[in-house]
Amino acid sequence: MQSTKSRRRIVPENGFGGDKQDQLLLSSAIANGEDISPFVRKAFAAGKPDILLQHLKAVARSKEAEIEEVCKAHYQDFILAVDELRSLLSDVDDLKSSLSLSNSHLQAVAQPLLATLDAFIETRNVNANVLLCVASIKICIQIAELCARANSHLKNDELYLALRCVDKIERNYLKVTPLSTLKNMLEKQIPAVRVYVEKKTNKEFGDWLVEIRTVSRNLGQFAIGQASSARQREEELRMRQRQAEEQSRLSLRDCVYALEEEDESLDLSFAAGIDGGRENGGVSPGFDLTPLYRAFHVHQSLGLEDRFKQYYFENRKLQLTSDFQVSSMTPFLESHQTFFAQIAGFFIVEDRVLRTGGGLISKWEVENLWEMAISKICSVLEDQFSRMQTANHLLLIKDYVSLLGVSMRRFGYPVDALLDVLSKHRDKYHELLLSDCRKQITDALAADKFEQMLMKKEYEYSMNVLAFQLQTSDIIPAFPYVAPFSSTVPDCCRIVRSFIEDSVSFMSYGGQLDFYDVVKKYLDRLLNEVLDEALVKLIGNSIHGVSQAMQVAANMAVFERACDFFFKHAAQLSGIPLRMVERTKRQFPLRKARDAAEDMLSGMIKTKIDGFMSLIENVNWMGDEPLQGGNEYVNEVIIFLETFVSTAQQILPPEVLKRVLQDVLSHISEKIVGALLGDSVKRFNVNAITGLDIDIRLLESFAESQGSLLCDTDANQLKSGLAESRQLVNLLLSNNPENFLNPVIREKNYNALDYKKVVTISEKLRDPSDRSFFTTRGARPNPKKKSLDALIRRLREVNSTFCPWIKQCNGDACNRLLRMGFIMILWRINRDPKPRI
């Protein structure tokens, strides 16, 4: 029995103080059930394991003694228990004998039944094994069939069907596969098949990504070509509309109305090509999204839909980024079509994927890609436009960009940013275009020989005259035909027409509907700043004869008709009805050149006239009788003018000839007045004035004789060029010169005279009968002399009164003063001999 004494833990001390003490400590630890490993460890550490073994043996002997004491204490009880067991053993033997007999009898009786039962159990087990085998075979056959079908699909590149077979095997048969070998094979091959399918679809998708770049470029070129064809059809329709409008404007009775049907075949073929792929011919060879959709379907079946979407978006984004690269080795003018077509095709493909891809790419992602693309395109255009120095290059790129915008708008992409870039560079384009036209016009003017243009064939007449509406009659002339203008006129007209067409082409299809005002503004600049200045420079530097000046003046008259054509042509191309343009009155834009040409021509004629007018010095200013046939100078002048008119009427239009002759006659009039006013003529008599009157009559007769060339009104206007000399002669020959002071008579008969000149010239007039200032002793006073003296006196009074103020005014101011207020002052003087100011 275990001791009831309280347990306590005995910890051995360092070293063994004595064998007895160590034995007691070990005994106490064993009795308390404590671990004796510290004692063992310490004994081996001290090198005395034998002593520990002796102690353990001593403890064992002490325990045996305790056991003996316990046995001695319970010996009687043990003997009693053994006796009871012996008596129980005899009863057990009897029971065993009885059971043995019963067992032998039972076995004898149940032996046949047991045999039958064993046979049944064996048969049932065999049947179960057979059924299990049949079921396993069926499963294996089904698995084998699915595997064979999957292999066939893989062989035929039907990856999705193969994947469905594999999924069916895994879902329905993998867990119930009876054969471990087959199961292991399936567990190994199913992931391998999926990996193979994924790699195969990824490879096909990669090949499609490579192929779609070429297809996209062809697709973009086709789409932009369709937009260009549509634009051409629209231009043809507009041309027919303009022709119908012109026809209806010219003859309302001959109007022909026709129903225009839009040709939608190209649009339908375009749509069919986009949506039909290979089946309908496609937009370009091999345009097919089947590899993409199959890869997407396969990844959906593999549960990798989101990963494939991200993979597709990233790869397409990388392709788009690579499409943005502009080669520095190739000029942008040569590569811009490929650049824009590649981007256009990219987004046409993405539009179809968005519509038919089943969520492969979202609308938001496509919009982000388009925003990135439009930003890059605008950046490239800004950079390239800033480098271009040729208007034609900029126009070519603008046209292609506008076609790109039309194509993209058909697929719902916003293109306002592109149009803004084009509008932003409108001024630069026109500046370059003006610069190009300036060079062309300078070259055309430099090549002009100032000779009338000879046209031998009708096509030349149509190309140089009818094309710019320069004809003055609708009747086709006989050939060869000598035009009144030189070759520079049609050359400049072609340059201006090209400018208009290029300007309209740039402004068209740029988002701005009403751009006629813009085209007109730059057309005005071309005519005013380029053509007009070039003509003025030509006139100032290159004209060296009357014939050349006459030809340039004739050219300017033709240019005036051409300018009307320019504005009409610009309006037609801009879609503005001609009736609106015809209502607008505009000034001739080449006024400076026209005036310079006419001034040059009249200046040269005036120079010739001055040579003849120098003969006026031979006039006898104090002759006793007036000359009946006119003075020598006027005969020479008239001969020269008649010669000039006979030549000029073949070239110059009547209105130009009228202005030149009127300017020349005004110059002659000024020369006559100047001769009387000059210091070389100290005095003259009435006979000399009568001779001048004859001279002026001859000149007026010459002006009237031009009525066959000009209308009567124009002939009368020619005579007005001699107004100053005619009014002066009339005043000097008048019986009442004092009527000059009458405002009404002055405004009616002497409005071209300057009172200062009248005073100076009147003081030189002398009576032939009295050579001393109109006074003769004992003679009867001459009323005409008195009237003239009164006129001179009144004019001197006015001159002395207003001289300080008038001296501060220039000639024009004095004339305005004379016309506005001086008449009233003279009227006051006439009423009051003592004027009060």
Automatic annotation (TrEMBL):
MHD2 domain segment(s): 631-744
UniProt cross-references to InterPro entries, sorted A to Z: EXOC6/Sec15, EXOC6/Sec15_C, EXOC6/Sec15_C_dom1, EXOC6_Sec15_N, EXOC6PINT-1/Sec15/Tip20_C_dom2, Munc13_dom-2
Annotated Gene Ontology cellular component terms: cytosol; exocyst; membrane
Major place of residence: cytoplasm
Subcellular location: Cytoplasm, Cytosol
GO biological process: acceptance of pollen; Golgi to plasma membrane transport; intracellular protein transport; pollen germination; pollen tube growth; vesicle tethering involved in exocytosis
Keywords from the UniProt entry: Cytoplasm, Exocytosis, Transport
Family of the protein in this entry: Belongs to the SEC15 family.
Function: Component of the exocyst complex involved in the docking of exocytic vesicles with fusion sites on the plasma membrane during regulated or polarized secretion. Involved in polarized cell growth and organ morphogenesis. During cytokinesis, involved in cell plate initiation, cell plate maturation and formation of new primary cell wall.
Protein name, entry field: Exocyst complex component
Species whose genome carries this gene: Carnegiea gigantea
